[in-house]
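=== RUN LOG ===
request id: a7f3
mode: sequence -> structure
chains: 1
length: 426
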Amino acid sequence: MFDSMAGNPVEETGSSAVETGNNAVTQWVELASDAAFAIDDRHQVVAWNRAAEQLLGYAPDEVIGRRCADVLQSRLPGGEPLCMPNCELFRCFRGCQPRGVPSCRVRRKNGDWVSVGYSSLVMPGQMPGPPSGAVVAVILLHENEERHVRVPLRGVLQIFALGKFGLAANGQGVAVEKWKRRQAVTLLKFLVTQLDRPVHRERILECLWPDVDEKRGWGRLKVTMYYLRAQLRAAGAGEDAVRTVGDAYLLRRDAVWVDADNFEKLVAEGRTLQGKGRNDDALRCYDEALFLYRGDYFEQDVFADWCAEERERLGEIFMEMLTRKAECHAERGEFAEAVQVCRKGLVHDPCRESFHRALMQYLARLGRADGAIAQFRHCQAVLAREFGVEPMPETQRLYRQILAQENAGAVPAVSPSGATARARQD
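=== RESULT ===
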């Protein structure tokens, strides 16, 4: 650690050393002429200077303690998210690599977007494995400039399959819309659906050129594969990101980062933590998963058979995750938050009766029986309009229970976990 700004070593250990180091970093941030902030090993903002407040509109007390991704919401020029769970920048900082981004957009407090460049200063004295709460980096924002310190993280290509398709590498978006061979994009997407699994060339030909004979199709595939590999290498992926396995091709999981793959891992981790009663940690996983789920899987390929099954599967995982997230909030007594999660689920699937029922329960626990009754009637109208059916008997029983207890002036004693158990049976 260092004594204030002088750089003189101070022998401290544990929390006192972390506090001393963080105080010194706070001084560096406050003295910076550019907009600057510092983050710790938990992704939380620990220092925020006046220039950052002027640039983004947040006062220090509005951001200190919050995750940097939640504050900045950074996106690359093509719309791909830059700030993500365990993002590339943070991995560089933990690896003691200063890293910059030439151009991206960050969100101001008023909702406007501003174009900035990132540069950084890492804290090597605390690497590797800094103690909890220790600062790992100071980040500077340069409005409308491209000054940056750049150390490429080679071999990692980010693939965004949830929502609008996109690629990013080394802190920059890859303009796939400018690729001359459009089938190369479809080929890459198809390989993503089979991540780390060999795909025989006949399946690829059926997907890309179903009406072309095998000989011509094989020729097109070789040219397209060559072009795809060249584009991936130019973007910063490893030399062997797409491997040839006999008459098949395989997109290596260790050569790419795919948002859908990481979304599923986060949900699984959250489920495990929730099963152990660690709802706080589970919620953090669910929040990170929710951040990644920007839209349905390959949403622009609505009529493509090759991704339809995976889109449906991931959509169900997303809805289950929302159910579990609402349950976590309810078990913490945060019924207002549980209500918001249920409403988000109904935006994605207005006919999901289990969410209507859970929403009724959580509204009742908030003392809003009138809202729960209105929700039942809305559910009734939606199901009648879409399917010509009435709500399930258990939904009707809950409605009568809430109605009777409202008339009696009581709050229904409903069980969030029971609601979730029923939701899984729908």
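=== NOTES ===
Confidence is low (pLDDT under 50) at residues 1-14, 126-130, 145-154, 414-426.
The chain has 16 helices and 14 strands.
=== END ===
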